[in-house]
Design a protein that fits this description.
about 230 residues; alpha/beta; Rossmann fold; two-stranded antiparallel ribbon; globular
Length: about 230
């Protein structure tokens, strides 16, 4: 029996995922600053729009106009899609009660109302950071993810890395709860004068084979290239 896939719209990465993310499923895109988390999240949404899907992008960091500006800079004219098949929402992580209510209640209503099949939350680590207790953080995140599993959509959440460990999310929690973990990171050649490069790795993918290799990638003005024929190490 074949498994339905949701493509990222990045040829080399989709190949590493054996055709894309499983539909439906939950994916964490983890990386430190400057590794392209937001750009890949936006690419995931743009791919959905090209396939005439309904998409929701929830930002806990950038303003709506900034997100739309990034899309425009990358050559995606999203104006015809806004509030029709693309819904971009900015939540204030400093307003705890409002943010929690919006994510846990209004999001599900919006998914049902619009029929969205792709959802991005960028970054989920700001949501996690609103809980002072690690126990509360774990319980609320588990609750939210279990609720999302009942939704007919694929969820991609970005997460910042832990300050002393570039291979782990900020709170070391999200990677255990999701179905797929994609890790973005820098790598430095032995020659310290050579430019720093980016690398992508599919660390985990439930119910599917996936590449175990670490591949270099590049973010260009009009596309994201994963060099599937090259190896980092």
């Amino acid at each position: 029996m074949s498994t339905s896939r949701v493509t990222m719209g990045i040829e080399g990465l989709d190949a590493m995922l054996e055709g894309g993310l499983i539909n439906p499923s939950i994916c964490a895109l983890i990386g430190t600053y400057g590794t392209g988390k937001t750009t890949l999240g936006i690419q995931f949404i743009a791919e959905g729009l090209l396939k005439k899907e309904k998409c929701i992008y929830i930002s806990l960091d950038e303003r709506v106009d900034m997100i739309q500006g990034i899309m425009k800079q990358r050559g995606w004219d999203v104006a015809p899609y806004v509030n029709k098949s693309l819904f971009v929402i900015k939540l204030d992580p400093t307003n705890f009660n409002l943010m929690i209510n919006s994510i846990k209640e209004e999001l599900f209503e919006l998914i049902e109302k619009t029929g969205a099949t792709r959802v991005v939350i960028d970054p989920i680590s700001l949501f996690e950071g609103t809980f002072s207790s690690s126990v509360d953080r774990r319980l609320e995140l588990i609750r939210f993810i279990e609720m999302m599993r009942d939704q007919p959509c694929t969820l991609l959440m970005t997460s910042e890395t832990e300050s002393n460990n570039p291979l782990m999310s900020r709170y070391g929690l999200i990677e255990y709860l999701v179905d797929t973990v994609i890790l973005l990171r820098y790598y430095r050649p032995a020659d310290m004068m050579t430019p720093v490069h980016l690398a992508v790795e599919v660390v985990k993918m439930r119910q599917s084979k996936h590449s175990r290799e670490i591949k270099p990638f590049e973010i260009l003005q009009d596309q994201i290239l994963v060099y599937s024929g090259a190896n980092v190490f």
